[in-house]
Design goal:
The protein has 12 helices and 20 strands. It is an alpha/beta fold. The chain has 3 domains: 54 residues, Roll (Archaeosine Trna-guanine Transglycosylase, Chain: A, domain 4); 116 residues, Ribose 5-phosphate Isomerase B, Chain: A, CATH 3.40.1400.10; 227 residues. The chain is globular and about 75 Å long.
Length: 471
C-alpha cells in the first residue's frame, strides 16, 4: 500500500522475503541523510544509503525531531463533514441537572487516598450485589505524601471525575489524616445530594456509615431514566495503544472520519497523548481555530518537551517494543498515524490535565501516552466513552465504556473477547463509508447502554499522572 503520492516508502500487506507484514519498503533509492516520507510527511532520516525494495526500519531510519522548534500560525481551516445523513440522529442518555448527559447511571466510589482503596473496593463489591447497581470504585495509590503540582493534580483529577455525567451518585471515602482532605474537596464542588463524603477515622463503624451513604445515593438514583438526546451531547475520547503499522491506515482514520462526522454537529471529540503529537504538531497547529488556541498548543508541545528534558530523557524515543514489532519505527511515524484520530476537524480548544471540556468540536487535552493515565484524563475531562484503537490487542478498560477497535482482522479474530470492532475490514474490501456507518451504529448502541467488552471486567482502576517527590 502506498499511502500518499509523495511517499518514498510503501507498507507491505503481506510478508515479502525478510520484511514482515506492516513494515516499510523503499520505493526508490534513498540517500543517507535524506528524509523518509510516509503519509506525505517526513517520518525521519535515512541512517545510510537505502536501495529501492529494501526494508526500511530502525536499522536504517532515525528520528529527526528537534528538541526546540519555532512555530508560526498558518491556519488551514478546511474540514471535512460527513454529517448530512445524521442531523436528527439521537441516543438515549441520562440528562443531569447541569445539562450534561451520561451514557451510564452508575454509583461511583472515589477514595481520596490509596490507604482506603481496598476498603472502598470491599464495600463497593458488597453494595453492587445488594443494590443491583453498577458500583464503580475508582481505585488509585495517591492522595498523600505528595507536594505541589502532584498534590494539586490528584485533587483536581478526583474533583473532575466526581462531576462526570456517567455517575448518578458519587461517594468520596477519605481516611482523615491524608494531604488530600475531604473538606478541601467538598469546598470546591457544588452542593448536591448526588455527591456525599465520609472520613473513616471520624466514625466508629465505617462500614455501617458507608452503607448508609450508599443507600441514600442509590435512592436518589432510582428514578433516573434515559431520554432521547441529540448527538451533539456526545463527548468522546480518542485513544490508541499497542499500535502497529495498520493503526494509521485503518482504525485511526476510521476514528478520524467519525470525528469529522460528529464535530460539526456540536459533539465534543477529544485527542490526547501529547508525546504522540511530536513530529505532527504543525498539522494540528494549522487547524487551530484562532491564534489563542495556536499559542496554547505551542505552549503544550514545548512544555511537554521540557518535561522530557527535565528528566534527562530523549524526546524522540517513544515507540514501544510492540510498536517497533508492528512496523512503527520513529515517533514522527507514530504521531502522524496517531493524530489521524482527529480527522480534519478544526481544533476548537486546548485544555490542560484535569480540566473539563469547554467547547464543542475537537479539543486537544494534555496527558502522556500511557494508556491508563491518558484514558483516565479523558474520563476526567468528561468523555462518556473512550474509543481505543490497537493493533497488538489489550483487555484494557477505564472507568467509562471503552470500545476497542482492532486495526487488523487477525487480531479481531484471535481476541474476540477483547475487541469490540474490526477496522481491519478496510483491508478486506469494505469501503470507509460502509464501515463508518457500522461504527457509528456501535457507538450509539454503546451510548444507549450496550456494554463494551471491557465493561464486563470487575475492576476499572484509574491512574494519576505523577511527576514530583513522594514524601
Amino acid at each position: 500500500m502506498i499511502i500518499h503520492e509523495k511517499d518514498n516508502v510503501e507498507v507491505l500487506l503481506q510478508v515479502e522475503g525478510n520484511i514482515p507484514v506492516g513494515h516499510k519498503r523503499a520505493l526508490r533509492d534513498i540517500s543517507e541523510g535524506e528524509q523518509i516520507i510516509k503519509y506525505g510527511h517526513p517520518i525521519g532520516r535515512a541512517k545510510c544509503d537505502i536501495k529501492a525494495g529494501e526494508w526500511v526500519h530502525s536499522h536504517n531510519l532515525r528520528s529527526d525531531i528537534p528538541l526546540h522548534d519555532e512555530y508560526e500560525y498558518a491556519p488551514l481551516l478546511d474540514s471535512e463533514s460527513h454529517n448530512h445523513a445524521y442531523p436528527k440522529a439521537t441516543f438515549m442518555g441520562y440528562v443531569r441537572e447541569n445539562g450534561e448527559v451520561g451514557v451510564r447511571n452508575e454509583l461511583w466510589i472515589i477514595p481520596t487516598v490509596g490507604c482506603v482503596a481496598s476498603l472502598s473496593e470491599e464495600v463497593g463489591r458488597a453494595f453492587a450485589i445488594e443494590s443491583n447497581l453498577v458500583v464503580r470504585v475508582l481505585s488509585h495509590t495517591y492522595g498523600c505524601s505528595q507536594l505541589g503540582d502532584d498534590h494539586q493534580r490528584t485533587a483536581s483529577l478526583l474533583l473532575a471525575l466526581a462531576q462526570h455525567p456517567n455517575a448518578g451518585g458519587v461517594l468520596f471515602i477519605g481516611l482523615g489524616c491524608e494531604n488530600n482532605q475531604v473538606s478541601a474537596l467538598k469546598e470546591q464542588l457544588p452542593p448536591t445530594q448526588r455527591i456525599r463524603y465520609i472520613e473513616t477515622q471520624k466514625v466508629d463503624d465505617e462500614q455501617e456509615a458507608i452503607h448508609q451513604q450508599l443507600c441514600e445515593l442509590a435512592d436518589n438514583m432510582k428514578d433516573d431514566k434515559r431520554t432521547a438526546c441529540p448527538l451533539s451531547k456526545l463527548r468522546i475520547g480518542l485513544k490508541c495503544g499497542g499500535s502497529d503499522a495498520f493503526s494509521g491506515l485503518t482504525a485511526n482514520p476510521l476514528l478520524g472520519k467519525l470525528t469529522d462526522l460528529l464535530a460539526p454537529l456540536g459533539a465534543y471529540m477529544v485527542l490526547t497523548e501529547v508525546p504522540e503529537m511530536f513530529g505532527a504538531e504543525r498539522l494540528l497547529m494549522s487547524r487551530c481555530v484562532n491564534k489563542k488556541n495556536f499559542d496554547k498548543l505551542v505552549d503544550l508541545i514545548n512544555d511537554f518537551k521540557q518535561y522530557f528534558v527535565n528528566h534527562n530523557q530523549p524526546v524522540g524515543e517513544n515507540p514501544s517494543p510492540g510498536n517497533h514489532d508492528g512496523g512503527i519505527t520513529t515517533l514522527e511515524e507514530k504521531s502522524l498515524g496517531c493524530i489521524q484520530k482527529g480527522g480534519s476537524a478544526i481544533v476548537t480548544d486546548v485544555i490542560r490535565y484535569a480540566q473539563r471540556l469547554r467547547q464543542p468540536g475537537l479539543t486537544l487535552l494534555e496527558a502522556p501516552g500511557n494508556d491508563l493515565v491518558a484514558a483516565t484524563a479523558l474520563a476526567a475531562a468528561g468523555c462518556q466513552i473512550v474509543l481505543f484503537t490497537t493493533g497488538r490487542g489489550t483487555p484494557f478498560s477505564t472507568c467509562v465504556p471503552t470500545l476497542k477497535v482492532s486495526t487488523n482482522t487477525n487480531l479481531y479474530q484471535r481476541k474476540p473477547h477483547w475487541m469490540d470492532f474490526n477496522a481491519g475490514d478496510l483491508l478486506d474490501g469494505i469501503t470507509m463509508p460502509q464501515l463508518l456507518d457500522q461504527f457509528l451504529a456501535l457507538v450509539i448502541a454503546t451510548a444507549n447502554g450496550q456494554p463494551a467488552k471491557g465493561e464486563r471486567l470487575s475492576s476499572h482502576p484509574i491512574a494519576i499522572w505523577k511527576d514530583g517527590v513522594t514524601l
